[in-house]
Amino acid sequence: MSQLLDILESKYPIIQGPIGELNDPKMVAAVCEAGGFGMLALGFIQDLDTIKKMIAEIRERTDKPFGANLMIAMNPANEQILEVLAEAGVKTVTTSAGAPQRIYPKIHELGMKGLHVALDFSFAVKAAKAGADGVVVSGYESGGLRTLKPESSNMVLIPLVCDHVDVPVVAAGAIADSRGYRAALALGAQGVQIGTRFLSSAESPAPQAWKEAILNCPEGGTTVLPVGGMGVRVIMNARLAEKMKDPNVDLSEEYNMMNMGKAWRSGQFDLFPPGAGQVSAVVTKIKTVKEIIDEMVS
Ligand SMILES: Cc1cc2nc3c(=O)[nH]c(=O)nc-3n(C[C@H](O)[C@H](O)[C@H](O)COP(=O)(O)O)c2cc1C
């Protein structure tokens, strides 16, 4: 068994990529039952009762291990959330968007393990030094938050990070099927984190318009939208394409991060375009998470 599977205790080293606030306990349980590691996305949720309710709903459907993602700099309730998770028997979390040294002492004090999400080489090495039990390495092609600096793709990042850290590495970005899964393992990763593919699955709580945007996304159809000093990888739509043509338009004024959750939950993508990775171009069918995982490990 790999070090990563020792930590996750799932059948396969396949982690459900957390998606903002888009949680559905049924989907988390479906990923676990299919052999993956289901995840709650708790980056922006502060209400502990909501979290306890979601955990109870997962537990009604599966007795398999699952985890949760915490966004370090975005949520003042992280320490209390960790206590709720530990009490419910959650053993592993992922952490992102912030300095790991702020949270790993608490994770370890509660007897839990944590995998830190790093968007580049230096942060992956720093996270391992700061006590992370593993790193989730997310290359330029990946969905989710990006930096606005020049970035590397996973073909470069994964082997580089594997050569410089002693903890298990998980590849996140552009993995949609067995080809991507095997490629990630060949590059040295012990597992994968899947965002876009699960976001477009049958069980995903994303609105149908979001799933269709992924299915219809052509190659080259995503871009990194600058907002609030960060980037978010999104699928281009007519409004965004129009704005991008005008050199006088400041995109970070046109699109406000505060509208992101509303747009994504409702499918009102003129407010904020749908988030997804470059791999959308490869996703052409909605499948169940079980079908996706079965094919991936086949
Ligand atoms: C719309 C969207 C929202 C995301 N939100 C989060 C998040 O809240 N926390 C996090 O750590 N990663 C987040 N991610 C990153 C995913 O969990 C995952 O690492 C990434 O999508 C993998 O790349 P892929 O989409 O190419 O599979 C998000 C990704 C997407 C597409």
Could you give the count of β-strands? 11
Rg of Cα set: 18 Å
Overall geometry comes to globular
Tell me the distance between the termini. Answer: 18 Å
- As a percent range, the share of strand residues is 15-25%
Main sheet summary: 8 strands, parallel
Query: How many helices in DSSP terms?
Result: 14
Class by alpha and beta content = alpha/beta
> What's the name of the CATH homologous superfamily of the largest domain?
Aldolase class I
Quick structural overview:
The chain is built from 14 helices and 11 strands.
Structure description:
The protein has 298 residues and is an alpha/beta fold. It folds into two domains: 3-205 and 285-296, Aldolase class I (TIM Barrel); 208-280, no CATH class. The protein is built from 14 helices and eleven strands. It has helices at residues 3-8, 25-33, 48-61, 78-87, 104-109, 121-129, 154-164, 178-186, 196-199, 208-215, 238-245, 251-254, 260-266, 289-296; strands spanning 14-16, 39-41, 67-71, 92-96, 113-118, 134-138, 144-146, 169-172, 191-194, 222-227, 230-235. The strands form two sheets. An eight-stranded parallel β-sheet has the order 1-9-8-6-5-4-3-2. The protein has a three-stranded antiparallel β-sheet with strand order 7-11-10. Helix 3 (48-61) links the parallel strand 2 and strand 3. Helix 2 runs parallel beside helix 3 (48-61) and helix 3 (48-61) packs parallel to helix 4 (78-87). The protein is globular. The two termini are 18 Å apart. The structure holds flavin mononucleotide (FMN). Flavin mononucleotide binds next to strand 3, strand 9 and helix 9.
